[in-house]
Write a structure and sequence with these properties.
This protein is an alpha/beta fold and 293 residues long. It has eleven helices and seven strands.
Length: 293
Amino acid sequence: METVLKQLRSLDSKNATAQEISDFYNEATEDYSFWSKDFNMHFGYCTMGKTLPFLRNSMLNEMNRQVLKRLALEKGTQLTADLGCGMGGTMRHFMKTHKKLSIIGVTLSEFQVVQGNIFLNNTKGIIINENYTNTSIPTSSIDGAVAMESFCHSGHSISCLKEAHRILKKGKKLVITDAFLKKPPSELCTGSKYSYDGLCKGWSLDGIGVIDEVKKNLNNLGFKNITIEDISLRVAPSVLHVPFAIPLFLIKQFFKGKKIKPQSWNNLKASFFALLAGLHRSSFGYYIITAQK
């Protein structure tokens, strides 16, 4: 099999992947282009005095900056991985900031592979069509790995954490940004359970990991210096854009005479469930996890 390092030169990616998540992103990517002109497929980070809460793209790119900061990459040539990279928005931001950085993005969506690699043309980045729980990336070859609202599609399973540990060089870091449960699903109240089920169904999630269990799994896999930051209040301003952004997108699609795809409706419903979940602070939180191999 061709190594990923060779793929960076050839832009050849062919592996088949899980159909449900692939279909989700094949259909949903146009929605995200409305969410972010840079194709940032995640929520944002609001810093008073630095980002304005009504400028969504500024907050989304600030989240990229916060994640890159926590990777603590060296200044020289570095190779990183974006596990669940979407259209490569975060990858492009990283490479603009760190001029000697090369990035491998992993996605299940064939559409994102094709279109994302067009956006990455003439950069040191490539998107490959693989499952982030079982990649062809060589063992101990990566100087940093990120997973921004992507590991939730596998329920923040131990398999995705294990694969991230495998590909990282010793001493290098994994940074995860995502929503997590603060208690097991069986202990959620009626309102929290309703929100949880709606999120999982609308966004094709395997489930949302329980933050304490994820930390325990990271420890058991051999990660050290694990830092868990609750940034729910930093993320909240970008979440509040949801009830305006997605309905406006659907209205524009309607007046353009375009058929609204089923996944667009699911995105709309799931986004409102995300808002509802944010009201249940005792059950849900949004975190940045940093863990060193």
